[in-house]
Amino acid sequence: MRKKIVAANWKMNLNLEEGKKLVDGIIAGMPTLNEQKEVVIAPPFVHLAQTAGQLQGKAHIYLGAQNCYSETAGAYTGEISASMLKSVGTAYVIIGHSERREYFKEDNAMLAKKTDQGLANGLKVIFCCGEPLEVRDADTQNAYVEKQIKEGLFHLDAAQLKNIVIAYEPIWAIGTGRTASAQQAQDMHAHIRAVIAAQYGKDTADNMSILYGGSCKPSNAAELFACADVDGGLIGGASLKADEFLGIIDAMIKA
Ligand code: PEP
Questions:
Q1: Strand, helix or coil for residue 1
Q2: CA 212 to CA 204: how far, in whole Å?
Q3: Domains in the chain, number
Q4: C-alpha–C-alpha distance, residues 219 and 241, integer Å
Q5: How far apart are CA 169 and CA 156, in angstroms?
Q6: 47 among known catalytic residues
Q7: Does 174 contact ligand 1 (Cβ within 6 A)?
Q8: Is the distance from CB of 29 to CB of 9 less than 8 angstroms?
Q9: Is 234 in the pocket of ligand 1 (CB under 6 A)?
Q10: Are 38 and 62 spatial neighbours (Cβ–Cβ below 8 Å)?
Q11: What is the CATH number of the domain that holds 241?
Q12: Full pLDDT tens readout for the chain, 255 residues
């Protein structure tokens, strides 16, 4: 059975003290999780060691990073390798967020290499995909997302794919307050699962967690997570307040 996951992406927010307080608040209110229901917290790099300490001994709450570099080590000033992430206790790495694609010009070929680095270093990869508004308006979103997945992931074998979680994040819904409708999310998630099934078989596709991201809040999470192919969420803005994030976790647990 595939896992339900709620993952926090803090982006470039919060200093160390603010981050500590937020994690303390999340831990204090955390309901009981289990093997099938996980929470991931992906703070900025400088928080990782501190957050790792706070999460120590907490079952089913994992540390995530927001990015890693596409090379193993060496003269890449300012970059962070997947093995460094692993060494501080990181379990997940987010790859291919639309902000990385847009502002840092990360293309599918680079994201495929970053995915390889994550997997080679024992990290699970949350691979993001999603279309801009003009693509949605032209109703060509299925082909657009399919290309991102094929070019970013289809060099992997089925065993490697077990350590991939896909996050569908329509760019027009990220940080805009405009959420995809439950039907729009379900339609795309079903399409992504069909794309995976066509390449890797139904079992692999059925076992893959596919998260929705884009203005997900406590008020809309239950409806989104009730969709058959939506296995949780990647949460930006609403992950910065403990009560809101806990409300979304609650919706995942009840779904
Ligand atoms: C994100 O950037 O991954 C995201 C989903 O952001 P928000 O929840 O703020 O739309």
A1: coil
A2: 19
A3: 1
A4: 14
A5: 22
A6: no
A7: yes
A8: no
A9: yes
A10: yes
A11: 3.20.20.70
A12: 899 999 999 999 999 999 999 999 999 999 999 999 999 999 999 999 999 999 999 999 999 999 999 999 999 999 999 999 999 999 999 999 999 999 999 999 999 999 999 999 999 999 999 999 999 999 999 999 999 999 999 999 999 999 999 999 999 999 888 889 999 999 999 999 999 999 999 999 999 999 999 999 999 999 999 999 999 999 999 999 999 999 999 999 999
Residue 97 among the catalytic residues:
yes
Enter the DSSP assignment of 241.
Answer: S
Q: Say how many C-beta atoms besides its own lie within 10 A of residue 248's C-beta.
A: 26
Residue corresponding to tokens 């003269």: 75
**Total-model pTM:** 0.98
How far apart are the C-alpha atoms of 11 and 13, rounded to whole Å? 6
Burial class of residue 132, CB neighbours in 10 A (0-12, 13-18, 19+): middle
Domain span at residue 243 reads 4-254
Rg (CA), the chain: 17
Task: Please work out whether the CB of residue 215 comes within 6 Å of at least one atom of ligand 1.
Answer: yes
